[in-house]
Amino acid sequence: MTTLSYVELHRQVAPEIDAEIATALESLGPSSGAVRRSISGLLGHQRMKYPLSVLPLLVHACETGAPGPAVPLAAVHVLWWTSACYLDDLADGHGAHTPAGLGTDEALLASVLSGQALPIRIVQAQPVPDAVRGALTREIVDCWIDAVEGQLRDLHGDLTNASCDAVVAACRGKSGAPFGMITAMAAILSGAGSERTALWREFGEVFGILWQLFNDQEDLLSGRDEDLLNGTVTYLLACALEEAPPGSRERVAELGRAARGSAAARARLRALLLGPAVLRRFEKDLAAFRDDAHRVLDELSGDESHVPALRQLVDQAAGMYLTMGLP
Q1: CATH superfamily of 6-317
Q2: Could you tell me how far CA 72 lies from the centroid of its own chain?
């Protein structure tokens, strides 16, 4: 039995995903030239480092053996995250990273259409029963509500009262909801029943939490330290707060607040986050989320030539990449 990695699958289908997006843009008609140019510019600017657009393909293939029919959903995934990543940069104060040739306002308008109107148009164009089309559309609408709720919780994170549970609640919205959306959409498109669709949504939500923790690690590993600059209450920071010795929690919280404007405070906070007790707690919890994702996949099973790629994605997201003493 031959199995493809998720990267290999993406390499095979990337031209089809690009063609689906191009078709959706072209369908806007000759009077929407500015819209097409703006969205194309945003897509070129917000290139995804990891090809997670294969997720709906893999889910559909696990259900039916065929990834191809889910290519439109892969296009939806790319468009959704292109929008969300740009809006996230704006919310975090990174609006200076505006796509070349676009003004900030133009990029903002393009991101709204990229994440909402265009994905809905793609879904509405699919040759499926009205009930399926309606269900797929509702997934997009409901996801935006949940994702914005999670993002707002993230923006209003309270360092003094922060907890790992509160961070997970925010992650379930801003990252878990969109991954849960796309895996549920793929299940719906495949004809899976409600119980299996619910399980695929659960898998997507847990994977979304794992991917957020993966991104948090990458931020520190890259030296960008954007989370420290933004004052974001990450899961790692929540671990540090919960693992702080008695009487030391407020000192950690003060460092988190000071890190937004002080390089020295950021250096001290980074060293604290990379301490042995914090990393042990983070790794233990990371493993629990990983095990939960694998549990759902065990329950779902599915086509054996495609499940391994999903497990590969889970294991990559759940890797422990931070170590003590990082510069």
Answers
A1: Farnesyl Diphosphate Synthase (1.10.600.10)
A2: 18
